[in-house]
User: What shape does this take?
Amino acid sequence: MTHVLDGQGSIEQVATISGIPIQLADSVAFGSAENAGHVVVCGSHGGTSAGEYAARFGYGALITSDAGGGLNEAGVAGLRDLDEAGVPAAAVSHESARIGDGRDIWESGIVSFANRCALEAGVRLGFSTPEAAGAIATLLAKRVS
Amino acid sequence: MLREKVDVIDGYEVIVLDSASQIRVEDKGRVVIAASNGGRESGRAAILAGCALVVFNDAGVGKERAGVIGLDLIDERGIPGMAVSHDSAEISDGLGTWNHGILSCVNEAAAALGVSEGMSVRDAVNRVCEVWKERS
Assistant: This one.
């Protein structure tokens, strides 16, 4: 069963913070198990499927768009789910950065949601994406040391 | 993530997915309800597969209409596309989108087949299949 986007998307390392790679992708699905432990910043919404991909690939942390929240705050439901696995996750406002555009999430995103693990890492609403990624990477680095 | 064939209308299979990343090559010619945002990558998946019609979530539309920009991309290929309001159905919930979704955005190809904002997903899909049947 071949998914049409298999091999069609890319993931790019934009920074290393506290030794933790920060990866950018337009979709959460474009990473792989090779990104286990990395902070993945992507253009996807933070719904349940995004949480499933992050858990499947073992991402160290995930930053997405909040997709405007929407019905039952479904736009960040997957990020809440990641708390159970101890994975920090945050979302940026869909008005601050283009959903579907990982680069814009990184360059323009303003955090509108942080899960419990991300809050514990020091992420706060209003942070830029690099600020949030930095706080999370510092926490992840402490965990592995 | 769910993949389910929920209906066959006038010979057109209706496939429900939680994510557009689940779109497969064999979805060519099918009606696909994918509960992702209707952004660039979702549009690209629909084009690569050659879906007959797609329904996404508008993700609140957001900055530069990025949440529905994929509908413009598929419009260029003549594929009818629509998005449900993110307040009518949960993003990432394919069955909720099929059962409860209310359209907030339709592309020109869909509008030409009689689809308009405010319609339910089921009514819109039935309308399009009806028109296709009349034209075939």
Observations:
- The mean pLDDT of chain B is 97.
